[in-house]
Structure formats: structure tokens, C-alpha cells
Amino acid sequence: MSIKIQTLGAICAFSVLSACAGSGIGDNDTERAVIGAAGGALIADATENDVATGAAVGALAGVFCDDAGVCRQSN
């Protein structure tokens, strides 16, 4: 049961961080990398995986999400 609660907490935290990205936070690669690293670390911890690896993968995803058109904001 503990892993389910941790996973749910990680998903909620990631959702909150994602919502922040749409409000002016996350306008550049550095900010998106920090948001992605935090989300990746939380999810990795909740799923009992390596936190450093999760943070690295999340940071890379944050940096390249606008290049892939996933998190591009329309003006």
C-alpha cells in the first residue's frame, strides 16, 4: 500500500510542477530542466528506482520538450 501512496504523491507533485510551467515559469531550458529533474526524481523515488537517474532523465526531457513541440507555449 505504501508504494501506491508514494506513486500517487509523485503523480500529484509532477502535475503541480507541470501546471507551474504554463504560468510563466519554465520559459527557458534551464527552468524546464529544473522542473523536469524534480518531477523525474519524485517519480523515480516513488517507484523505487534510482533518484539520480530519474532526475537526469527528467532534466533532459525538460530541456528538449519544447524542441519536440510538447511544452511549447502559444503566444
Give a quick precis of the structure.
By secondary structure, the chain is mainly alpha-helical. The chain has helices at residues 2-21, 29-46, 51-64.
Question: How would you characterize this protein structure?
Answer:
With 75 residues, the chain is mostly helical. It has one domain (2-64). Helices cover 69% and strands 0% of the residues. It has three helices and no strands. It has helices at 2-21, 29-46, 51-64. Helix 2 packs antiparallel against helix 3 (51-64). The protein is elongated and about 35 Å long.
Produce the secondary structure layout.
Layout: H1 2-21, H2 29-46, H3 51-64
Radius of gyration: 13 Å
**Total individual domains:** 1
Q: How far is the N terminus from the C terminus?
A: 44 Å
Q: What are the secondary-structure elements, in order, as H or E? A: HHH
Can you tell me the overall shape? elongated
How many beta-strand elements?
Answer: 0
Class by SSE composition: mainly alpha
Number of helical segments with 4 or more residues: 3
* Helix content percent band: 55-70%
Binned strand content: under 5%
Q: Calculate the mean pLDDT score and round it.
A: 74
Unreliably modeled segments = none
Largest sheet properties: none
